[in-house]
Amino acid sequence: MSYARHVRTALTATVIMLAATSAAADGVSVSIHGRVGTVCRVEVGGPPAPRFEVGETRLGRMTELCNNVDGYRLVLSHPVGLQDAWMVVDGQRIPISPTSSTTVIVDSNGPAAREREVGIVLSSASDTLDLTLRAEAKGAIF
Asked: What is the pLDDT along the chain (142 residues), one digit of tens a residue?
């Protein structure tokens, strides 16, 4: 490509940019849209409970994060048959289902990032207790 052609191309690009700038000054706007992937997670941090005693056992600090516009659920997986048992989330008792292996402990209708204290209340002691907590986004997931 010749030098003259490079100059013409550069001048054409400059004229186009000036026209776009002039149009923006006259009320035309440019917008950029993006889509962010859904992030939904929960973690519990704290020392492991040496033994689950009768009464309340502190499990630690729960960190939950979900950016889903429709909200999310935090679901506890636990053994079937836990009688008179509750999860405690920031002092609020949520009954654990004795007939199911899962219990929803948080049901949020919007996105959130929170930290809360969690514990479990049992009516009988146990050396081990298999508990799993998971976050589930509601609605569309990207």
From this structure: 444 443 344 334 444 444 445 555 567 888 887 888 899 999 999 887 678 889 999 999 999 999 999 999 999 999 999 999 999 999 999 999 999 999 999 999 999 999 999 999 999 988 888 999 999 999 888 8
Q: What are phi and psi of 58, to 5 degrees?
A: -75, 130
For residue 55, the cross-strand partners are: 122
> Across the chain, where does the E strand assignment appear?
40-45, 55-66, 72-77, 86-89, 92-95, 102-108, 112-122, 132-137
Q: Which two tokens stand for residue 11?
A: 């001048």
Three-class SS state of 97: coil
Q: Can you tell me the distance from the alpha carbon of 102 to that of 99, in angstroms, rounded to the nearest whole number?
A: 9
Contact 122, 57 (CB under 8 A): yes
Handedness of CA 113, 46, 132, 122 (dihedral sign): negative
